[in-house]
Amino acid sequence: MGKPWILSTLMLVIVLVLVARARAEVPAIIVFGDSSVDSGNNNRISTVLKSNFRPYGRDFYGRRATGRFSNGRIPPDFISEAFGLKPTVPAYLDPMFSISDFATGVCFASAGTGYDNATSKVLNVIPLWREVEYYKDYQNKLRAYVGNDKASEIISESLYLVSLGTNDFLENYYVFPTRRSQFNVKQYQDFLVGLSENFIRDLYSLGVRKMSLTGVPPMGCLPLERATNIMDSHNCVSEYNNVALEFNGKLGGLVTRLNDELPGMQILFADAYDIVYQIIKEPSQYGFEVAEKACCATGTFEMSYLCNEHNPFTCPDANKYVFWDAFHPTEKTNRIVSGHLIPTLLSTFS
Questions:
Q1: How far is the C-alpha of 229 from the C-alpha of 240, rounded, in Å?
Q2: What is the rounded CA–CA span in Å between residue 105 and residue 133?
Q3: Which is catalytic among the residues 38, 94, 116, 328?
Q4: Which residues pair with 349 in a beta bridge?
Q5: Phi/psi of residue 21, nearest 5 degrees
Q6: d(CA 321, CA 192)
Q7: Catalytic residue among 35, 163, 196, 350, which?
Q8: Residue boundaries of the structural domains of the chain
Q9: For 27-219+238-271+328-349, CATH number?
Q10: Which of 18, 188, 226, 273 can bridge 346 by disulfide, Cβ–Cβ 3.0-4.6 Å?
Q11: Catalytic: 328?
Protein backbone atom coordinates (compact mmCIF):
# COMPACT_ATOMS: atom_id res chain seq x y z
CA MET A 1 0.00 0.00 0.00
CA GLY A 2 2.94 2.33 0.62
CA LYS A 3 4.58 2.12 -2.81
CA PRO A 4 2.24 4.49 -4.72
CA TRP A 5 2.73 7.09 -1.99
CA ILE A 6 6.52 6.70 -2.13
CA LEU A 7 6.54 6.95 -5.94
CA SER A 8 4.34 10.04 -5.93
CA THR A 9 6.59 11.66 -3.31
CA LEU A 10 9.68 10.90 -5.38
CA MET A 11 8.03 12.36 -8.48
CA LEU A 12 7.16 15.52 -6.54
CA VAL A 13 10.76 15.88 -5.37
CA ILE A 14 12.05 15.38 -8.92
CA VAL A 15 9.65 17.98 -10.32
CA LEU A 16 10.59 20.47 -7.56
CA VAL A 17 14.29 19.98 -8.34
CA LEU A 18 13.61 20.49 -12.04
CA VAL A 19 11.58 23.61 -11.31
CA ALA A 20 14.42 25.00 -9.18
CA ARG A 21 16.86 24.39 -12.02
CA ALA A 22 14.45 25.85 -14.57
CA ARG A 23 14.16 29.20 -12.79
CA ALA A 24 17.45 30.44 -14.18
CA GLU A 25 17.16 28.73 -17.56
CA VAL A 26 13.95 30.07 -19.16
CA PRO A 27 13.46 33.84 -18.78
CA ALA A 28 10.04 33.92 -20.46
CA ILE A 29 7.21 31.84 -21.91
CA ILE A 30 6.15 33.09 -25.35
CA VAL A 31 2.99 31.73 -26.96
CA PHE A 32 1.68 31.38 -30.51
CA GLY A 33 -1.48 29.59 -31.60
CA ASP A 34 -5.25 29.40 -31.33
CA SER A 35 -7.92 29.27 -28.60
CA SER A 36 -6.16 26.41 -26.83
CA VAL A 37 -3.56 28.97 -25.73
CA ASP A 38 -5.14 32.43 -26.34
CA SER A 39 -5.19 34.43 -23.11
CA GLY A 40 -7.29 37.28 -24.45
CA ASN A 41 -6.02 38.75 -27.73
CA ASN A 42 -9.40 38.28 -29.40
CA ASN A 43 -10.87 40.77 -26.91
CA ARG A 44 -9.18 43.55 -28.86
CA ILE A 45 -10.22 42.63 -32.43
CA SER A 46 -13.49 42.70 -34.34
CA THR A 47 -14.67 39.09 -34.21
CA VAL A 48 -17.62 37.16 -32.81
CA LEU A 49 -15.20 34.66 -31.30
CA LYS A 50 -14.73 36.07 -27.81
CA SER A 51 -14.92 34.81 -24.24
CA ASN A 52 -14.43 37.94 -22.13
CA PHE A 53 -17.72 37.53 -20.28
CA ARG A 54 -19.18 35.22 -17.66
CA PRO A 55 -19.36 32.34 -17.11
CA TYR A 56 -15.94 32.15 -18.82
CA GLY A 57 -13.30 32.75 -16.18
CA ARG A 58 -15.60 32.06 -13.24
CA ASP A 59 -12.84 29.93 -11.63
CA PHE A 60 -9.98 32.21 -12.70
CA TYR A 61 -8.20 34.58 -10.29
CA GLY A 62 -10.72 37.19 -9.16
CA ARG A 63 -13.41 35.29 -11.08
CA ARG A 64 -12.45 37.37 -14.13
CA ALA A 65 -13.38 36.55 -17.72
CA THR A 66 -10.06 37.37 -19.39
CA GLY A 67 -10.71 36.03 -22.88
CA ARG A 68 -9.39 32.56 -22.10
CA PHE A 69 -11.74 29.91 -23.51
CA SER A 70 -12.14 28.07 -20.23
CA ASN A 71 -13.58 28.48 -16.76
CA GLY A 72 -10.04 29.13 -15.51
CA ARG A 73 -6.44 28.84 -16.55
CA ILE A 74 -5.07 27.36 -19.78
CA PRO A 75 -1.89 25.31 -20.44
CA PRO A 76 0.62 28.18 -20.91
CA ASP A 77 -0.36 29.49 -17.48
CA PHE A 78 0.48 26.18 -15.81
CA ILE A 79 3.68 25.79 -17.81
CA SER A 80 4.83 29.32 -16.92
CA GLU A 81 4.22 28.62 -13.24
CA ALA A 82 6.12 25.32 -13.45
CA PHE A 83 9.15 27.14 -14.84
CA GLY A 84 9.18 29.43 -11.83
CA LEU A 85 7.64 32.35 -13.72
CA LYS A 86 4.29 34.04 -13.12
CA PRO A 87 1.12 31.87 -12.92
CA THR A 88 -0.51 33.51 -15.95
CA VAL A 89 0.77 34.57 -19.38
CA PRO A 90 -0.74 37.91 -20.49
CA ALA A 91 -2.15 38.63 -23.95
CA TYR A 92 -0.04 41.01 -26.03
CA LEU A 93 -3.04 43.13 -27.03
CA ASP A 94 -4.33 43.50 -23.47
CA PRO A 95 -3.92 47.20 -22.52
CA MET A 96 -3.66 46.25 -18.83
CA PHE A 97 -0.12 44.98 -19.49
CA SER A 98 3.07 46.53 -20.83
CA ILE A 99 6.54 45.46 -21.90
CA SER A 100 7.59 45.15 -18.25
CA ASP A 101 5.00 42.36 -17.91
CA PHE A 102 5.75 40.83 -21.31
CA ALA A 103 9.47 40.51 -20.59
CA THR A 104 8.76 37.31 -18.63
CA GLY A 105 5.89 35.99 -20.73
CA VAL A 106 3.57 37.03 -23.52
CA CYS A 107 0.84 35.47 -25.65
CA PHE A 108 0.25 36.28 -29.33
CA ALA A 109 -2.34 33.54 -29.91
CA SER A 110 -5.76 34.18 -31.39
CA ALA A 111 -8.78 31.92 -30.94
CA GLY A 112 -10.05 30.58 -34.25
CA THR A 113 -6.79 30.89 -36.17
CA GLY A 114 -4.78 28.19 -37.93
CA TYR A 115 -1.70 27.55 -40.03
CA ASP A 116 -3.81 28.29 -43.10
CA ASN A 117 -4.53 32.01 -43.66
CA ALA A 118 -7.96 31.01 -44.99
CA THR A 119 -8.84 29.62 -41.56
CA SER A 120 -8.32 32.96 -39.81
CA LYS A 121 -10.66 34.62 -42.31
CA VAL A 122 -13.62 32.39 -41.33
CA LEU A 123 -14.24 34.29 -38.08
CA ASN A 124 -12.06 37.33 -38.79
CA VAL A 125 -9.32 36.54 -36.29
CA ILE A 126 -5.56 37.12 -36.21
CA PRO A 127 -3.72 35.05 -38.84
CA LEU A 128 -0.50 33.32 -37.87
CA TRP A 129 1.62 35.69 -39.99
CA ARG A 130 0.17 38.61 -38.02
CA GLU A 131 1.09 36.87 -34.74
CA VAL A 132 4.67 36.85 -36.04
CA GLU A 133 4.44 40.56 -36.88
CA TYR A 134 3.29 41.26 -33.32
CA TYR A 135 6.27 39.23 -32.12
CA LYS A 136 8.62 41.42 -34.17
CA ASP A 137 7.03 44.48 -32.60
CA TYR A 138 7.53 42.85 -29.20
CA GLN A 139 11.22 42.30 -29.94
CA ASN A 140 11.67 45.99 -30.71
CA LYS A 141 9.93 47.00 -27.49
CA LEU A 142 11.99 44.47 -25.52
CA ARG A 143 15.27 45.85 -26.91
CA ALA A 144 14.20 49.36 -25.99
CA TYR A 145 13.24 48.18 -22.49
CA VAL A 146 16.21 45.99 -21.45
CA GLY A 147 18.86 46.77 -24.07
CA ASN A 148 20.06 44.75 -27.06
CA ASP A 149 22.21 42.22 -25.20
CA LYS A 150 19.63 41.34 -22.56
CA ALA A 151 16.85 41.26 -25.15
CA SER A 152 18.84 38.88 -27.35
CA GLU A 153 19.36 36.62 -24.33
CA ILE A 154 15.64 36.62 -23.49
CA ILE A 155 14.72 35.93 -27.13
CA SER A 156 17.07 32.97 -27.51
CA GLU A 157 16.60 31.44 -24.05
CA SER A 158 12.81 31.75 -23.77
CA LEU A 159 10.53 28.77 -24.29
CA TYR A 160 8.12 29.21 -27.18
CA LEU A 161 4.83 27.32 -26.97
CA VAL A 162 3.01 26.68 -30.26
CA SER A 163 -0.45 25.11 -30.39
CA LEU A 164 -2.80 25.19 -33.40
CA GLY A 165 -4.17 23.13 -36.29
CA THR A 166 -7.60 22.00 -35.08
CA ASN A 167 -9.40 24.97 -36.66
CA ASP A 168 -7.78 24.28 -40.01
CA PHE A 169 -9.70 21.02 -40.16
CA LEU A 170 -12.93 21.59 -38.20
CA GLU A 171 -13.52 25.26 -39.01
CA ASN A 172 -12.17 25.33 -42.54
CA TYR A 173 -11.50 22.08 -44.44
CA TYR A 174 -14.57 20.12 -43.34
CA VAL A 175 -16.94 23.12 -43.45
CA PHE A 176 -16.12 25.01 -46.63
CA PRO A 177 -15.57 23.55 -50.13
CA THR A 178 -12.59 25.65 -51.21
CA ARG A 179 -9.75 23.65 -49.64
CA ARG A 180 -11.54 20.32 -50.27
CA SER A 181 -11.66 21.17 -53.98
CA GLN A 182 -7.90 21.78 -53.92
CA PHE A 183 -6.67 19.00 -51.62
CA ASN A 184 -7.71 15.61 -50.35
CA VAL A 185 -7.26 15.41 -46.59
CA LYS A 186 -3.77 13.88 -46.73
CA GLN A 187 -2.66 16.60 -49.15
CA TYR A 188 -4.14 19.22 -46.85
CA GLN A 189 -2.20 17.77 -43.94
CA ASP A 190 0.98 18.09 -46.01
CA PHE A 191 0.02 21.66 -46.94
CA LEU A 192 -0.37 22.55 -43.25
CA VAL A 193 2.92 20.87 -42.33
CA GLY A 194 4.61 22.98 -45.00
CA LEU A 195 3.09 26.11 -43.48
CA SER A 196 4.25 24.97 -40.04
CA GLU A 197 7.78 24.55 -41.37
CA ASN A 198 7.76 28.04 -42.86
CA PHE A 199 6.51 29.45 -39.55
CA ILE A 200 9.21 27.68 -37.52
CA ARG A 201 11.94 28.77 -39.92
CA ASP A 202 10.67 32.36 -39.70
CA LEU A 203 10.89 32.27 -35.90
CA TYR A 204 14.35 30.68 -36.10
CA SER A 205 15.53 33.57 -38.29
CA LEU A 206 14.26 35.91 -35.55
CA GLY A 207 16.40 34.25 -32.89
CA VAL A 208 14.06 31.59 -31.49
CA ARG A 209 15.91 28.49 -30.26
CA LYS A 210 13.62 26.63 -27.80
CA MET A 211 10.19 25.50 -28.89
CA SER A 212 7.43 23.16 -27.79
CA LEU A 213 5.14 22.28 -30.70
CA THR A 214 1.79 20.71 -29.84
CA GLY A 215 -0.25 18.82 -32.41
CA VAL A 216 -4.02 18.53 -32.53
CA PRO A 217 -6.17 16.70 -29.92
CA PRO A 218 -8.65 13.89 -30.64
CA MET A 219 -10.86 16.43 -32.38
CA GLY A 220 -13.53 13.87 -33.21
CA CYS A 221 -14.27 13.65 -29.48
CA LEU A 222 -15.07 17.33 -28.96
CA PRO A 223 -18.65 17.68 -27.67
CA LEU A 224 -19.66 19.64 -30.77
CA GLU A 225 -18.56 16.83 -33.07
CA ARG A 226 -20.17 14.14 -30.91
CA ALA A 227 -23.44 16.07 -30.76
CA THR A 228 -23.68 16.10 -34.55
CA ASN A 229 -22.58 12.46 -34.91
CA ILE A 230 -26.17 11.25 -34.76
CA MET A 231 -25.73 8.21 -37.02
CA ASP A 232 -23.10 6.76 -34.69
CA SER A 233 -24.91 7.26 -31.38
CA HIS A 234 -22.95 10.43 -30.56
CA ASN A 235 -19.67 8.58 -30.27
CA CYS A 236 -16.35 10.20 -31.19
CA VAL A 237 -16.00 10.80 -34.94
CA SER A 238 -13.30 8.28 -35.82
CA GLU A 239 -12.52 9.92 -39.18
CA TYR A 240 -11.51 13.16 -37.47
CA ASN A 241 -9.46 11.36 -34.85
CA ASN A 242 -7.61 9.38 -37.53
CA VAL A 243 -6.86 12.62 -39.38
CA ALA A 244 -5.53 14.09 -36.12
CA LEU A 245 -3.24 11.11 -35.58
CA GLU A 246 -1.93 11.23 -39.14
CA PHE A 247 -1.33 14.98 -38.95
CA ASN A 248 0.45 14.68 -35.61
CA GLY A 249 2.67 11.98 -37.06
CA LYS A 250 3.67 14.30 -39.90
CA LEU A 251 4.33 17.17 -37.48
CA GLY A 252 6.50 14.85 -35.41
CA GLY A 253 8.50 14.00 -38.53
CA LEU A 254 8.91 17.70 -39.27
CA VAL A 255 10.23 18.31 -35.75
CA THR A 256 12.81 15.55 -36.13
CA ARG A 257 14.00 16.95 -39.46
CA LEU A 258 14.20 20.58 -38.33
CA ASN A 259 16.12 19.63 -35.18
CA ASP A 260 18.75 18.19 -37.54
CA GLU A 261 18.67 21.03 -40.07
CA LEU A 262 18.58 24.13 -37.85
CA PRO A 263 21.81 24.58 -35.83
CA GLY A 264 21.14 25.34 -32.18
CA MET A 265 17.39 24.82 -32.53
CA GLN A 266 15.70 22.58 -29.99
CA ILE A 267 12.10 21.62 -30.76
CA LEU A 268 10.06 19.26 -28.61
CA PHE A 269 6.96 17.70 -30.13
CA ALA A 270 4.66 17.88 -27.10
CA ASP A 271 1.94 15.53 -28.31
CA ALA A 272 -1.09 15.73 -26.03
CA TYR A 273 -3.36 13.49 -28.12
CA ASP A 274 -2.97 10.33 -26.03
CA ILE A 275 -3.48 11.92 -22.61
CA VAL A 276 -6.57 13.83 -23.80
CA TYR A 277 -7.99 10.68 -25.39
CA GLN A 278 -7.37 8.70 -22.19
CA ILE A 279 -9.20 11.33 -20.13
CA ILE A 280 -12.17 11.26 -22.50
CA LYS A 281 -12.35 7.48 -22.64
CA GLU A 282 -11.79 6.89 -18.91
CA PRO A 283 -12.95 10.11 -17.24
CA SER A 284 -13.55 8.53 -13.84
CA GLN A 285 -9.86 7.60 -13.63
CA TYR A 286 -9.09 11.30 -13.60
CA GLY A 287 -11.89 12.42 -11.29
CA PHE A 288 -14.40 13.41 -13.98
CA GLU A 289 -18.04 12.40 -14.33
CA VAL A 290 -18.91 13.72 -17.79
CA ALA A 291 -16.84 13.57 -20.98
CA GLU A 292 -19.35 13.55 -23.82
CA LYS A 293 -20.94 16.91 -23.02
CA ALA A 294 -19.55 20.21 -21.79
CA CYS A 295 -20.35 22.15 -18.63
CA CYS A 296 -21.54 25.36 -20.26
CA ALA A 297 -25.19 25.57 -21.43
CA THR A 298 -26.46 22.26 -22.87
CA GLY A 299 -22.86 21.22 -23.46
CA THR A 300 -23.50 20.10 -27.02
CA PHE A 301 -22.86 23.00 -29.39
CA GLU A 302 -22.43 26.22 -27.39
CA MET A 303 -19.25 28.28 -27.27
CA SER A 304 -18.40 32.00 -27.21
CA TYR A 305 -21.58 34.12 -27.00
CA LEU A 306 -23.84 31.06 -26.85
CA CYS A 307 -22.06 30.16 -23.61
CA ASN A 308 -23.23 33.05 -21.43
CA GLU A 309 -24.28 33.64 -17.85
CA HIS A 310 -27.97 33.77 -18.76
CA ASN A 311 -28.09 30.15 -19.85
CA PRO A 312 -29.81 28.16 -17.09
CA PHE A 313 -28.29 24.80 -18.06
CA THR A 314 -24.65 25.55 -17.19
CA CYS A 315 -23.31 23.09 -14.63
CA PRO A 316 -22.50 24.29 -11.09
CA ASP A 317 -19.20 22.37 -10.82
CA ALA A 318 -16.89 22.41 -13.83
CA ASN A 319 -14.48 19.99 -12.11
CA LYS A 320 -16.86 17.15 -12.94
CA TYR A 321 -16.55 17.87 -16.67
CA VAL A 322 -13.73 17.22 -19.14
CA PHE A 323 -14.97 20.05 -21.36
CA TRP A 324 -15.99 23.58 -20.45
CA ASP A 325 -17.76 24.52 -23.68
CA ALA A 326 -18.41 22.45 -26.80
CA PHE A 327 -14.86 22.99 -28.04
CA HIS A 328 -12.60 23.71 -25.08
CA PRO A 329 -11.45 21.86 -21.93
CA THR A 330 -12.11 22.86 -18.36
CA GLU A 331 -9.32 24.27 -16.20
CA LYS A 332 -9.06 20.89 -14.48
CA THR A 333 -8.45 19.15 -17.81
CA ASN A 334 -5.92 21.82 -18.78
CA ARG A 335 -4.14 21.26 -15.46
CA ILE A 336 -3.97 17.48 -15.95
CA VAL A 337 -2.78 17.70 -19.56
CA SER A 338 -0.19 20.35 -18.67
CA GLY A 339 0.96 18.27 -15.71
CA HIS A 340 1.48 15.36 -18.09
CA LEU A 341 3.70 17.48 -20.38
CA ILE A 342 5.55 19.61 -17.82
CA PRO A 343 8.13 17.05 -16.59
CA THR A 344 9.32 16.51 -20.18
CA LEU A 345 9.37 20.26 -20.83
CA LEU A 346 11.37 20.87 -17.65
CA SER A 347 13.89 18.11 -18.35
CA THR A 348 14.29 19.19 -22.00
CA PHE A 349 14.62 22.94 -21.52
CA SER A 350 16.23 23.24 -18.08
A1: 11
A2: 17
A3: 328
A4: none
A5: -70, -35
A6: 31
A7: 35
A8: 27-219+238-271+328-349
A9: 3.40.50.1110
A10: 18
A11: yes
